[in-house]
């Protein structure tokens, strides 16, 4: 929903003639394109609210040593002094018992020495656990889980799961805990419970079994909806007996609710999209589609005012996924029409994002952030291909050929070699098809 770790939309890996059992998607290797994953920008990142990555509350992860040297080259000693001060100040807000290990662990991480970083951060985590939560105030659980998040980043996958499960368990209701240390009676406040959702999200990411991944994401969705509801303003609800009316009210409420100040739409939308991906892979379309719709509504709220390029591009990803899900049903004319409508909506969103000015980046906004449209650039080739497939299914060879040509060109421009191959194969197939079924 601000960094979905990029596994982009679905595509079609096919040989032979087109038929309704084919999945409408540009088939690509895992490293190129596959089912859109919420592990891209639309996700609750550890550093989005983490005490480990913000300059004032954390360990200075957003102001790395390399940034200090960049400042030296560009702005001279004055800017460097300011950066070093912020880097230093971030550590002084932690108890002195933790500072040396945290500083050494972060420094080793930034220099690529993960083994050394893991040793320092493990010791820092154990030290934090030995302290009463009051020593890490305010928001002790944010600090504890922040250390765990950075430790998981530099550790092996097995240890990362162990650390994250430990810190997730320590954020549970005190009545459900089995530990007997100083943290056993600490009850996280809502601002800290949203961090526990992020931990569960990461544990889902690290899960190798789909049932395990689903378990973590179901919990994350249920918890984040509870937390969002706590900050929701009441709206008039139709009290009629119509089940359809009640269903519609339930579906629009997420896009319209007023979130608490400590919760972002990333926090709310990422688990929804991720769980939608799980159900899509399992073929549970009746569960996946509502989750995608909710995530889209969060990225593109009614009116579409002040929506960023990145949010628009990620909404286009999900719209393309929704189109693919629709085409898993028997391809009646109505189904094909619905699928193409969503794919063309994705295309409209991408084209609209292309007309927006790029956000500024760098020191004092001196340069344009050319990466803002990177998601759109990659999704565009897939969307063009998928619309081309739908046109081909309707025997519109002329439109299909034009779309496949554009898809091949777009995929080539962003280095998606598999996409180029699939589009060229589709062009050869279209050219081999008898022209009698072509429409104007």
Describe this structure in words.
The protein is mainly α and 440 residues long. The protein has helices spanning 65-75, 77-92, 96-110, 114-130, 140-154, 157-170, 190-206, 210-230, 243-256, 265-282, 285-299, 309-326, 333-354, 374-393, 397-413, 417-432; strands at residues 40-41, 360-361, 367-368. Strand 2 (360-361) and strand 3 (367-368) form a beta hairpin. Helix 11 (285-299) packs antiparallel against helix 12 (309-326) and helix 14 (374-393) packs parallel to helix 16 (417-432).
Shape: elongated
Count of alpha/pi helices: 16
- Determine the mean pLDDT: 74
Q: Major sheet: order of its strands? A: 2-3
Secondary-structure class: mainly alpha
Relative helix content: 55-70%
* Beginning-to-end CA distance, first to last residue: 39 Å
Largest sheet: 2 strands, antiparallel
Beta content: under 5%
Question: What value does the Rg take, in angstroms?
Answer: 24 Å
Low-pLDDT parts are: 1-9, 11-89, 230-253
- SSE topology string: EHHHHHHHHHHHHHEEHHH
Please render the helix and strand layout as text.
Blueprint: E1 40-41, H1 65-75, H2 77-92, H3 96-110, H4 114-130, H5 140-154, H6 157-170, H7 190-206, H8 210-230, H9 243-256, H10 265-282, H11 285-299, H12 309-326, H13 333-354, E2 360-361, E3 367-368, H14 374-393, H15 397-413, H16 417-432
Antiparallel strand pairs: 2-3
Helix pairs in contact: 1-2, 3-4, 4-5, 5-6, 5-7, 6-7, 7-8, 8-10, 9-11, 10-11, 11-12, 12-13, 12-14, 13-14, 14-15, 14-16, 15-16
For the structure shown, list the relevant keywords.
3 strands, 60% helix, 440 residues, two-stranded antiparallel sheet, disordered N terminus, mainly alpha
